[in-house]
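User: Can you recover a sequence for this backbone? Please restate the input before giving your answer.

Assistant: Of course. Working from this structure:
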């Protein structure tokens, strides 16, 4: 039982450290996922994750792959901290005298964790998506302008480079949303975010706990380093793919800018119907492998940091009495 009684500050610090490391490692793949999910059949800019990343580097430079990373790095600490700490909190209070939780109670704890985290997740995703997708919209406009110029000239002259439109920053987006829509502007897509994150946590946390338990050398002992990492990777990728259709809907709803001839949506049901009608069921799996590649190491790293107790070690060093 003692292992579960970890201080709240330690839980928050562990979650924050894990989030910062994970986001830094996998953010370019997350950018590719957003752009692949947002492109519709009218104007397909990218054919795959690698194609998206190569074209992004060519048109926006290496750091173009990290557009929106500052938002994630700022808010991922409270987001991951809330998620991990809330799950630990609910599991602790749902357990009876240290007995193993039933599958239903594990899912209930995950549901509580997913519900708590959307307080931070929704505005973070809202801002991140605008910044990530800005390059795709700009590239599409540039191509269409070049095509229009060639058409006007009868294909006789090369296209003239059009001036790049300024891309907004996270602070500009935040100010504009607060000024025009109030706090609700930052929480656009809240329902879709809940629809993604609650089922994700219901699948992830019980699956991780059971996979991690398989590698425990003895009852009450912590699993080895590699077992926690692999359990986090497997559980994270499985949960990510399972809820990918909800992630596609959420990404489309939270995107404020649209490309040429791309649909607009009024809500979750309207978005789902239009995707089915115009793009088919396979569209709900757009970016699924990217999302699995993002979530697997992200949660693998998170669980390793969490189970190693890095924050407890740091706090112990700070609290050690001076000689």
């Amino acid at each position: 039982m003692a292992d579960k009684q970890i201080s709240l500050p330690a839980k928050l610090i562990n979650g924050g450290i894990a989030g910062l490391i994970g986001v830094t490692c996998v953010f370019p793949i997350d950018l590719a996922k957003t752009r692949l999910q947002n492109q519709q059949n009218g104007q397909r800019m990218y054919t795959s994750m690698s194609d998206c990343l190569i074209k992004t580097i060519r048109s926006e430079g290496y750091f173009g792959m990290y557009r929106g990373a500052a938002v994630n790095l700022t808010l991922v600490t409270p987001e991951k901290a809330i998620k991990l700490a809330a799950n630990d909190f609910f599991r602790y209070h749902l357990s009876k005298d240290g007995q193993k939780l039933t599958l239903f109670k594990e899912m209930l704890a995950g549901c509580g964790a997913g519900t708590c985290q959307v307080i931070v997740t929704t505005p973070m995703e809202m801002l991140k998506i605008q910044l990530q997708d800005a390059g795709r919209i700009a590239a599409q406009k540039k191509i269409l302008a070049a095509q229009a110029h060639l058409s006007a000239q009868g294909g006789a002259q090369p296209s003239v480079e059009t001036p790049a439109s300024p891309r907004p920053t996270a602070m500009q987006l935040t100010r504009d949303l607060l000024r025009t829509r109030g706090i609700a502007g930052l929480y656009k897509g809240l329902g879709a975010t809940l629809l993604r994150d609650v089922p994700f946590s219901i699948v992830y946390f019980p699956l991780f706990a059971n996979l991690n338990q398989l590698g425990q050398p003895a009852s009450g002992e912590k699993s080895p380093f590699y077992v926690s990492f692999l359990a986090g990777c497997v559980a994270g990728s499985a949960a990510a793919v399972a809820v990918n259709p909800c992630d596609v809907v959420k990404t489309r709803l939270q995107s404020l800018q649209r490309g040429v001839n791309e649909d607009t949506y009024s809500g979750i049901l309207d978005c789902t119907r239009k995707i089915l009608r115009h793009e088919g069921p396979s569209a709900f799996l757009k970016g699924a492998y990217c999302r699995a590649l993002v979530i697997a190491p992200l949660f693998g790293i998170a669980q390793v940091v969490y189970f190693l107790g890095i924050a407890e070690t740091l706090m112990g060093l700070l609290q050690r009495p001076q000689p």
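That completes the design. The CA atoms of residues 232 and 300 lie 4 Å apart.
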